[in-house]
Each structure stands twice: as C-alpha cells, then as structure tokens.
Amino acid sequence: MTDEIIVRVAARGDGLTESGRHAAYAAPGDTLTEAGVVIAGPHNVAAPCRHFTRCGGCQLQHLDETSLAGFVNDRVVHAAQGQGLTAKDVEPAHLSPPRSRRRATLHAERAHGQIVIGFRAAGSHKIVDMRECHVIAEPLFALVAPLRAMLAKFPGKRLAADIQLTLADQGVVVEIKGLAVEGLGPTEALLDFARDHRLARLALDQGYGPEAMWEPEPATVTFAGTPVALPHGAFLQATADGEAALYQCARDWLKGASAIADLFSGLGGFAFALGDRARVLAVEASRDAHLACRSAAGRSPRHVECVHRDLYRNPMQVDELARFDAVVLDPPRAGAREQVAMLAHSAVERIVYVSCNPSSWARDAALLVAGGYRLAKVRPVGQFRWSTHVELASLFLC
Ligand SMILES: C[S@@+](CC[C@H](N)C(=O)[O-])C[C@H]1O[C@@H](n2cnc3c(N)ncnc32)[C@H](O)[C@@H]1O
C-alpha cells in the first residue's frame, strides 16, 4: 500500500481513494497515507462550527464550496450511473447558503440538572447542546437559548422533548412533542414564551397529536403570492432558495404545457408556481395538506384544482394521465414505484421528477427509461448544506 489521493466523497461522507480506501473527514485532493493518516489538501477547510464532528446535523463542513458542489453533483450522477443511466445535461448544483434552513427538529432533555437542546450527536442518541449553528435560519437559532431557559422552569428530574421549528409567514411555528405540561405554572411559562418571542404558533403534542395553544392568526406559507394555511407537521422544502430553484426548473422545463398534474403536491407549491400559465391538478394524500391547498386555490387567481388521493395504493392510471401534457412528481424518500409504472406506459410528453433521495429516484428513472422516456436534464440541489442529504430535479421526455 502507498500514499493515495482522495478522489471523491462517498454517499455517507467519507473521502474515497481510487482503490476504494476511505477516511472520515477527508476532502478530494487530500492525501491518505499508508498509515491511514489524512494530510489536508487545498479543498479541506476549517469547519465554521465548534460542534462539527460531534453534532449529527452536519457531515461535510470540512469541504470547500467546490468540493461540496462536487459531492452534491456526484451523488446524483453516480445514482443514475448505478442504474445504467446517463444524464447528458447536468446543470450546476444549487447549494443553499449557511443559515438558510427554515425547518429543523431539535431535541431537548434534562441532563445533570441542566437543559440541553440541539441535534443528536453523530451515531448516538445523545444531544449536542447547541451553542451555535451555521445551518438553521437566524430566527430559529434565536429561540434556542430562550427555549433552554423556559424548559428549565419545568419541574421534575426527567424531561425529554422533540421541538420542531418552522419559519412561517408570521414568524416561527414551534411544535413540542413529549413535554408533560401539568398545572398553571408550566402552562403560563409556555404562553409567556410564545408571546415574548412573537411566535406564529406554539403547539403541544402530549400523546394525542399536536394542539395549538397559541396562534394569534392562522399561520401560513406563501407560494407564488398565494398564502396557504400551514397545518401541523406539513411538508415544506427545507430552504426558501432551494424551493425557488426547484420551482424554477419546473417553470423553465414545462414552458408551453397547458395541463399539468402535480403529484404528491403537499401544500401546492409547484401547483401555484405553475398555475399562472397552465391548468394544474394538485394530488395529495395528506388530508390536512390537501384541504389547505384547496382552500388557498379557491381564493387564488391561479388555475389550481385539488384532489385527495393516495398515489401509492391508487396511482393515476394511464387513461387518466392522458388528460395532461406534463406531470410534476415530488414523492417522499421511498420514491413512487407504483405511480412511475403508470407514467412509464403513458403518453405524457414531459415529466419533471423532483426527489429527496437519489437512490429511489434512480430506480424509478430506470423504469421511465425502460418505458421509452429519456433523461434530458438534471439539477442537483443541496438544501441540506454540509449534510449528505441531496435533492434533485430532473426532466424526462418521451
Ligand atoms: C416531498 S413532499 C412534496 C410536497 C410538495 N411537492 C412541495 O414541494 O412542498 C411529498 C408529499 O407526498 C405526500 N404523500 C406521501 N405519501 C403519499 C401518497 N401515498 N399519495 C399521495 N401523496 C403522498 C406527503 O404528504 C407530502 O406532502
């Protein structure tokens, strides 16, 4: 064995040499010595955050911008290659900037009498007490110290809660799960916290599902000028700029389409983004998200109609798809095998497949290609900056 150069970063974040040796926190251009020591090269930079390597929130802060974009790009290209597919036109990766993530789930517990709050440690259930964070948006981070102080007022030795933070139009929505709130004192502490920090909503889930205890006006998120009510736990793209990059792909690639199906439509972000120049049918299985989208569509000048439907059990059939000249689909991490099997046999001219999992996307992409489609364009998107989580938009033409 000799010294070798790290040539790329593997899916889980390790640096890899040509011969397949790997090393943690190694960047392309680093040297991996015979003894297994990593000698930093030009793309290995000092991590901005003091918690890096302990906190499980980030795996790649040691990469400079070029290698980070390379990683996001390679994840998508290699997933496609693994299924025998070549994307001819791979657009430059979009990377969300630091401090832009608008939703995050933090964890809190009492340890040795102190409240700790943050992401879980890498490969462990321990919580890394967050004193700084370079990924979550400033309004979310600004709540961490006040949350710590507020939770310290809760009595009892044991405290363990999950805290979901989401940036809505009106401010931050905070949903706390697992916190036992008994008596007037803790209730007042929560309400004071919500008022003092001008929360958009404070919801508690004590085992019966989330219940809002503070929401001065209905919390919304706005898509293409259309405010849509934000139900508890509804899906939202992780960053506003990442969302804009994905919607822009759909708008650019579907120019001229007149009837579009937006499958796995959530609150209707793609539907509203496309509904100014085409009729869009938004199809979604979550009843709360469907109703929020339908109600917003009723007030919007955009041409959006909504259907409540489970596309895993009941995918749109080939004859139903014949009504559309384009389809956008943005399924959960598992992909959309059943729906894609129908699309593969359809005559839909253009399909924009948006994915948060290059592996399931590549598997589904191979089905589309076997059905006669060609992978025309790909745009890798790194909304989860410095993590190994990669998203993408892709265009298939028949
Ligand atoms: C990745 S999100 C995309 C949401 C939306 N396109 C957006 O950009 O905000 C996936 C969506 O699929 C929905 N979903 C999950 N399983 C589904 C199913 N079986 N049928 C239809 N929709 C489903 C989820 O509720 C979620 O809203």
Automatic annotation (TrEMBL):
<keyword id="KW-0489">Methyltransferase</keyword>
<feature type="active site">
    <location>
        <position position="356"/>
    </location>
</feature>
<dbReference type="Pfam" id="PF05958">
    <property type="entry name" value="tRNA_U5-meth_tr"/>
</dbReference>
<keyword id="KW-0808">Transferase</keyword>
<feature type="binding site">
    <location>
        <position position="264"/>
    </location>
    <ligand>
        <name>S-adenosyl-L-methionine</name>
    </ligand>
</feature>
<feature type="binding site">
    <location>
        <position position="330"/>
    </location>
    <ligand>
        <name>S-adenosyl-L-methionine</name>
    </ligand>
</feature>
<dbReference type="GO" id="GO:0008168">
    <property type="term" value="F:methyltransferase activity"/>
</dbReference>
<feature type="active site" description="Nucleophile">
    <location>
        <position position="356"/>
    </location>
</feature>
<dbReference type="InterPro" id="IPR029063">
    <property type="entry name" value="SAM-dependent_MTases_sf"/>
</dbReference>
<feature type="binding site">
    <location>
        <position position="237"/>
    </location>
    <ligand>
        <name>S-adenosyl-L-methionine</name>
    </ligand>
</feature>
<dbReference type="InterPro" id="IPR010280">
    <property type="entry name" value="U5_MeTrfase_fam"/>
</dbReference>
<dbReference type="GO" id="GO:0032259">
    <property type="term" value="P:methylation"/>
</dbReference>
<keyword id="KW-0949">S-adenosyl-L-methionine</keyword>
<protein>
    <submittedName>
        <fullName>Class I SAM-dependent RNA methyltransferase</fullName>
        <ecNumber>2.1.1.-</ecNumber>
    </submittedName>
</protein>
<feature type="binding site">
    <location>
        <position position="284"/>
    </location>
    <ligand>
        <name>S-adenosyl-L-methionine</name>
    </ligand>
</feature>
<comment type="similarity">
    <text>Belongs to the class I-like SAM-binding methyltransferase superfamily. RNA M5U methyltransferase family.</text>
</comment>
<dbReference type="InterPro" id="IPR030390">
    <property type="entry name" value="MeTrfase_TrmA_AS"/>
</dbReference>
